[in-house]
Design goal:
Largest sheet: 7 strands, mixed
CATH architecture of the largest domain: 3-Layer(aba) Sandwich
Structural class: alpha/beta
Bound molecules: S-adenosyl-L-homocysteine
CATH topology of the largest domain: Rossmann fold
CATH class of the largest domain: Alpha Beta
Strand order of the largest sheet: 16-15-14-17-18-20-19
């Protein structure tokens, strides 16, 4: 028998609207036995069934909902959900690499599946999802028929769930250094040692948004990882790009990417703390027509928000000072704790301190294969503001 979890009132109303998490302090009572990771049934105050999900009492997010119907969570359940997720990607993504499953946004909390050509990279980030890993791998093999399924379960968040960090092929075998195509560019993806699943697919459409802004430009790509924004800038007409990252292995791939596309003589790579680079460039009087900033998440939790705001403000302020009058700033934040409104405020406040006037040209989010589930606001995480930066007259 599944345990029955009776929720407090405030959790119930959010869940009825479509939110997928129950926090540990929103549980009124648990009837029946369960082990961490088990499927449980959720009931409101009137003892009406409202959903079914998995329970990990170790986590602050105690329950994540999988269905609102009285249906078994089995191979068939996962097959239906994965087929729907894949059908959607086939409609909105042009190309052979994309995110196939985006966790809550595909009603599969804790599951990430990225497709890099013939290889799938999977993450089961919660104990509840980990239990179904083999079933999910079977379904993915059947539906997408990949050459291999690589498990990148070395993310730190797994520790919160009491899970070990592991990586390796779950199904099949293939190269782990892959070449994909994005917006006409050749890009190397290291699914074994790259960051997250190996590559940031969520920025694909934002990289394309450089088109029309970088003709003949001198561009600075800060937090460049494997230099994907930088390569796009060259492809869209930039004269020269300087790309900065603190990771030597990311820059090694960046160098190979530049070569692969025949751009080596126009890309300069710098291995340095980006805060130092921006400070140094300001001192040296360096100027650029376009600056791209795509830092890692500075706000991993609500607690680190204050420090994160200062960090975002500092790098944006420094970037603005390097931009020639009328040039462009493409600035990103991937922390869902920084709302779009807050991000715009940070940029605006940085611009007044930098003594610049900004025009907002476009405000973008993550690519279409990372959709936002409106009743679950945490699925909206990426902000990408494109601003024209003007000197005060
Ligand atoms: N723009 C990239 C993704 C950037 S992810 C793309 O389009 O693919 C963030 C990057 O910031 C990572 O590559 C990480 O190595 C780098 N990073 C983190 N802290 C840094 C710091 N203090 N200085 C420079 N780079 C840093």
């Amino acid at each position: 028998m599944r345990a029955k979890v009776i929720l407090k009132e405030k959790a119930t109303s959010k869940i009825i609207k479509g939110f997928l998490w129950v926090y540990s302090n929103e549980i009124e009572k648990v009837d029946g036995d369960f082990s961490p990771g088990d499927i449980v049934d959720l009931y409101d105050q009137n003892r009406s069934f409202i959903g079914r999900g998995y329970f990990n009492p170790l986590s602050k997010i105690a329950i994540r909902i999988l269905t609102r119907r009285d249906e078994e969570i089995n191979r068939n359940f996962f097959k239906n959900a994965i087929v729907k997720a894949w059908e959607y990607r086939k409609r909105v993504v042009n190309g052979s690499s994309c995110r196939v499953v985006f966790s809550e946004a595909d009603f599969l909390p804790g599951l990430i599946v990225d497709k890099f050509g013939e290889v799938l990279v999977i993450q089961t980030l919660t104990l509840g999802m980990e239990r179904f890993k083999e079933t999910i791998a079977d379904v993915l093999s059947e539906v997408l028929q990949p050459m291999g399924i690589y498990e990148r379960n070395d993310a730190t968040v797994r520790e919160v769930e009491g899970l070990p960090k592991i990586k390796g092929f779950l199904r099949g075998k293939a190269q782990t250094l892959l070449e994909i195509e994005e917006n006409g560019l050749r890009i190397l993806v290291d699914v074994e040692n790259g960051q997250k699943t190996g590559y940031f697919l969520d920025q694909r459409e934002n990289r394309k948004a450089l088109e029309g802004l970088v003709d003949e430009a001198e561009v600075l790509d800060v937090f460049c990882y494997t230099a994907s924004f930088a390569l796009h800038a060259i492809r869209f007409g930039a004269k020269r790009v300087v790309a900065v990252d603190s990771s030597a292995s990311a820059l090694e791939l960046a160098k190979n990417n530049a070569e692969l596309n025949g751009f080596s003589n126009r890309v300069e790579l710098i291995e340095e703390n980006a805060f130092d680079t921006l400070r140094r460039f300001q001192k040296e009087g360096r100027k650029f027509d376009v600056v791209i900033i795509d830092p890692p998440s500075f706000a991993k939790s609500q607690k680190s928000l204050e420090g994160a705001i200062r960090g975002y403000k500092e790098i944006n302020l420094r970037a603005m000072k390097l931009i020639r009058d009328g040039g462009f700033l493409i600035t990103c934040s991937c922390s869902h704790h920084i709302t779009p409104e807050l991000f715009k405020e940070i940029i605006s406040s940085a611009s007044s301190d930098a003594n610049r006037i900004l025009k907002l040209i476009e405000f973008r989010h993550q690519a279409k294969d990372h959709p936002v589930l409106l009743p679950h606001p945490e699925t909206l995480y990426l902000k990408c503001g494109i601003y024209q930066v003007l000197k005060k007259p």
